[in-house]
Amino acid sequence: QVQLVESGGGLVQAGGSLRLSCAASGRAFSNYGMGWFRQAPGKEREFVATIYWTGTTKYYANSVKGRFTISRDNAKNTMYLQMNSLKPEDTAVYYCAARSNPWGSSVKADYAYWGQGTQVTVSS
User: Fold this and answer.
1) Over pLDDT 90: what percentage of the chain?
2) Is 19 helix (H, G, I), strand (E, B) or coil?
3) Torsion sign across C-alpha atoms 44, 103, 68, 22
4) What end-to-end distance do the CA atoms of the chain give, in Å?
């Protein structure tokens, strides 16, 4: 069992940056594959990025590749999402997720644990 709490969201102008954090409590954070997803109003929750337990294998949605960077610090039980060159279309609630498997995944159904979400709003 793991509990997840996101932070770092807010309002930013287009072209700006934000850094999201996901703090995990519970056992064996390093055993979990982790991911970031987002959901815009009226849309389905979509994959953003995922990271394997080692922190060295990462995958990104095409829409954020080259602008966002996912990372994790297993010693601090925390995952991050550095978001640069933000666009209005990045506006959404961002969720972190964990799966009971050391490998990451881009599939929502693969994740058993979810945070409550943090709002990111990018103004034009």
Assistant:
1) 94
2) strand
3) positive
4) 40
